[in-house]
Each structure stands twice: as C-alpha cells, then as structure tokens.
Amino acid sequence: MPALNPVVLKMSALTVYLCVFVLGVQDPRHERVVTVSANGSIHSPSFPHTYPRNTVLVWRLVAVEENVWIQLTFDERFGLEDPEDDICKYDFVEIEEPSDGTVLGRWCGSGTVPGKQISKGNQIRIRFVSDEYFPSEPGFCIHYSIVMPQVPEAVSPSVLPPSALPLDLLNNAVTAFSTLEELIRYLEPDRWQVDLDDLYRPTWQLLGKAFVFGRKPRVVDLNLLKEEVRLYSCTPRNFSVSIREELKRTDTIFWPGCLLVKRCGGNCACCLHNCNECQCVPSKVTKKYHEVLQLRPKIGVRGLHKSLTDVALEHHEECDCVCRGNTGG
C-alpha cells in the first residue's frame, strides 16, 4: 500500500474537523456562558504549556449590567500553530460579536500579540479551535474587564469646553446625545442637576402661555420628541412592490401581483456630519419566501399553466444613514 502524503492527510482531517465544528458550535452545549461582574480571564487548556489537540471551546461572556462593554486584552504570552498563506486555517482563537455574528478577528501564530477588543454591548463570544496536528505553546490567555461606554468621538472634537466650541461642532456634539440628562451633563458637568431642575421649574411665562392659550402641555418630554424622530426617520417600513418587477419576470403572471415588504424609508436630516447628500440605506437584509399563484403560458397550446410557488423577496431589517460628499473631510 503506497504511503499517504501527510499534507493530504492533514487537509482531509481538517475538512472533516471543520465541518463538525461548524455544525457543532450551533449546539448550546458547546458554549460555556461566563458571567462577568469583575475582572477575570480565560485561557487555552494547560496555558502556558502546550494545549491539547482536536479541541473546540466556546465561551460567551455576559456582563451582569446591560449598559456596559466588555474589554478583552491578550496576555503577552501568545502562541498558536502558524498560519498558512497568512490565513489561520488550523489552530486559532476567534472573537465574535453575538448581536450580529460579526467576527472581530481571528488570530494564530506567535509573531504578534493581538490588540485589545471591545464589545458593542454587554456580551462577546470567544472561540478556540485546534486540529489533530502540531499543537504549539503557550496557547493564549485573554483578560477581560468591564468598561463604561465612551461618549462618541463626534461629541468631543477638541479639548475645548462645550461653550468654547464653534457653533457647527457644538451642533454635531448636541445631536449625538440620546437623553436630555446626558446633554445637560455634557454642557454643564459641574451644575448639571441644577440646570436640569431649572428647565422644568414652572415660571410665570410658561404657566401664562400654557393656561391662557392652551397650545402646549405643562410638561414637555423632550426625550420623547427625540425618540419619535429616531423611530420614524430612516427605518424599515411597509412598501407595496410588484412581484414581476422585483423578479424581472415578464413571462409570468403572479397573483397577488403586489406584496408588502419591509424596505428602508424616511429622511436623514439630522446627520452628524457635514455632507452634501445623505441616504437611508439597508444595513441588514434578509430574504423571505411568499407563496403565490403563478400563471405561465403553455407551450404550443392555448391556456395557462397554474401552480403555487414560493417567491423570495428582500426585506430590510435595519437601516442606516450613509453620508456621501462629506465636506468636513
């Protein structure tokens, strides 16, 4: 019997292994949930010594508090099997954003220690994979800690206090805040509570207009006004679309001919950037199947062939404002 090439053996084993891995990680039993309330760490088995072969480990870190982020810092001692063609195919550690499945990074080898990673919310997933060949040392160790969400960069374009900023920069900073309290804290960090109380303290001007003209309520919820704009500007909404036009099927008739789908709509008037054009575009698209009646002419004879069929139409689940022609650099 001729000797088998070890490279072929490795690739064959890898193919089977990765197939099992891709299917296996969908099973919750393969995922270990780690509750994060203080600093801690996770590491490859036997760290800082050689890790075992043929291993799949998945950790999902969940912070106790909701409005925090999780920061991951790699230990300086880092070493996994080297990549092939600059791709981590065999042994690797991978970090994923659970909210949308985005892979923040995949690392292997020992040339460079991965940089810090910060979650988008209060959860983050770490996945470690090793195949049947060539385990390395020391593996990896990741230290985790809780960090508070930072104020968006646009809010603090310089070290100047808000009152000293140019009006355009201050306008961009003000737009970025979600609640009135956050805004007042930013504008007056030393006396924000006093200013906030003063805003809602009744004065004779407010009471006079409210009672005499009856044109506005006694208490205005500015947070609610901003939230209404956010909810109804650039959001998925129902649109009626023609199936024939969507599928470009001029040879077929569908009934019903139009269906409701979710498509991005609304304006992007309150951009945080100086731009010439701002468009509402989909950031998350899914295909959904709709059962309809399909009518097609019979070949060679008069009449229509009738059948029920599923048509796939795009639905926009999330939308974002994308600015083009940015004049601010």
TrEMBL record:
Going by the UniProt record, its keywords in alphabetical order are: Cleavage on pair of basic residues, Developmental protein, Disulfide bond, Glycoprotein, Growth factor, Mitogen, Secreted, Signal
- Residue ranges of domain CUB in the record: 19-147
CDD domains associated with the record:
CUB, PDGF
Note the superkingdom of the native organism.
Answer: Eukaryota
How is this protein annotated for GO cellular component? extracellular space; membrane
**Signal peptide location:** 1-24
| Pfam families (alphabetical) | CUB, PDGF
Supply one GO molecular-function term.
growth factor activity
Which compartments does it reside in? Secreted
Keyword Hydrolase assigned to the entry: answer is no
Platelet-derived growth factor (PDGF) family profile domain location, by residue?
234-326
Q: Which SMART domains match?
A: CUB (SM00042), PDGF (SM00141)
Question: Which InterPro entries does the entry mention?
Answer: CUB_dom, Cystine-knot_cytokine, PDGF/VEGF_dom, Sperma_CUB_dom_sf
Q: An example of a Gene Ontology BP annotation on this entry?
A: positive regulation of cell population proliferation
Identify its protein family.
Belongs to the PDGF/VEGF growth factor family.
Protein name in the entry = Platelet-derived growth factor C
What is the species listed in this Swiss-Prot or TrEMBL entry?
Nannospalax galili
UniProt lists the gene as: Pdgfc
